[in-house]
Amino acid sequence: MSVIERVIVRFAGPEVLEWCVVEDVQVTEQVIRHKIINDEIIIAELDGQPIGYLRIEYLWSNIPYIGVIFVVDDYRDEGVGSKILIFLEDYLRSRGYDVLYSSSQVNEPEAQAWHRSVGFVESGIISGINEGGIGEVFFRKSLT
Ligand SMILES: CC(C)(COP(=O)(O)OP(=O)(O)OC[C@H]1O[C@@H](n2cnc3c(N)ncnc32)[C@H](O)[C@@H]1OP(=O)(O)O)[C@@H](O)C(=O)NCCC(=O)NCCS
Questions:
Q1: Mutation test of ligand 1: which of 54, 105, 114, 117 has the most ligand atoms closer than 8 Å to its C-beta?
Q2: What is the arithmetic mean of pLDDT over 44-71?
Q3: What Å distances lie between residue 74 and 35, 77, 80, 87, 134, CA to CA?
Q4: Of 106, 102, 100, 99, whose CA–CA distance to 125 is shortest?
């Protein structure tokens, strides 16, 4: 069986809290605990070991937005990111959402290229919002 066939994508539970806290340095453990309870963290697992992560946010509490998505270095370019994204999109559709937002720093061309290759289109920039005055470019993807 190929790696991607063996990868399981699911919502994170308390058993992976520690891994999430180590890997997602942008938020506190308290935030991650809260988000796990609310089905706002998705992981990809290979043989029981997490290898991919996605944190969901909701703009104004009702517009879904990818806070962060990553796949562990050794497992990139094998379809794991897409499998996580498909899981999220199916979940959001089942909850009645028709659009998904995401973003990346303006100085990260690879992350922007990934967004475009998986169907996001650019939807604006917030200048200077990151450390060092770096801007953030936003993307949207229709779920219909
Ligand atoms: C971006 C990321 C999550 C993609 O996950 P992945 O498992 O490597 O991606 P996949 O193998 O599922 O590839 C999905 C598609 O994206 C494309 N892709 C992947 N990385 C890409 C990149 N850096 N630039 C352009 N396209 C890319 C693949 O070619 C593939 O396209 P295809 O379906 O037309 O063949 C992963 O590379 C990563 O963790 N990057 C570092 C963190 C990051 O930049 N996150 C995104 C911004 S928050």
A1: 114
A2: 98
A3: 26, 9, 11, 21, 28
A4: 106
Cα–Cα distance measured from residue 90 to residue 143, given in angstroms and rounded to the nearest whole number:
9
Whether residue 81 has its Cβ less than 6 Å from ligand 1: yes
- In eight-state DSSP terms, residue 68 is E
Portion of the chain with pLDDT greater than 90, in percent: 98
Secondary structure (DSSP) of 12-67:
--GGGHHHHHHH-TTS-HHHHHHHHHTT-EEEEEETTEEEEEEEEEEETTTEEEEE
Distance CA 128, CA 110 (A): 19
| Nearest by Cα to 98 from 31, 54, 143 | 143
Is the minimum distance from the CB of 7 to ligand 1 under 6 angstroms? no
Tokens describing residue 99: 């659009």
* pLDDT reported for residue 137: 98
Substitution candidate for ligand 1 out of 77, 85, 89 with most atoms within 8 A of CB: 77
pTM of the model: 0.96
